[in-house]
Amino acid sequence: MKKDHPLHKRFMRRLREARLIAGYTQREVADYIGKNSSYVSKIENCKIDLDMFILFRMNELFKKPISYYFESQSKRTKRIKKES
């Protein structure tokens, strides 16, 4: 998928959102995955592709189901209300 594709951008936006919700800085995530913080920034800003291994490592911190990154806003809102 191209980096400028809307689904790619949405996925990366959700990845950033998951990081923020979990309370991690880019530096903390970078340390955990063995990269530098600019690497995490480039992922979140769609500058480089995300390796699946890195995604799974990041998600170990964020503790989100993988489906979280693919949900539409309306589905996510419904899920959040249901969880409350």
From TrEMBL:
<feature type="domain" description="HTH cro/C1-type">
    <location>
        <begin position="15"/>
        <end position="69"/>
    </location>
</feature>
<dbReference type="Pfam" id="PF01381">
    <property type="entry name" value="HTH_3"/>
</dbReference>
<dbReference type="InterPro" id="IPR001387">
    <property type="entry name" value="Cro/C1-type_HTH"/>
</dbReference>
<dbReference type="InterPro" id="IPR010982">
    <property type="entry name" value="Lambda_DNA-bd_dom_sf"/>
</dbReference>
<dbReference type="GO" id="GO:0003677">
    <property type="term" value="F:DNA binding"/>
</dbReference>
<protein>
    <submittedName>
        <fullName>XRE family transcriptional regulator</fullName>
    </submittedName>
</protein>
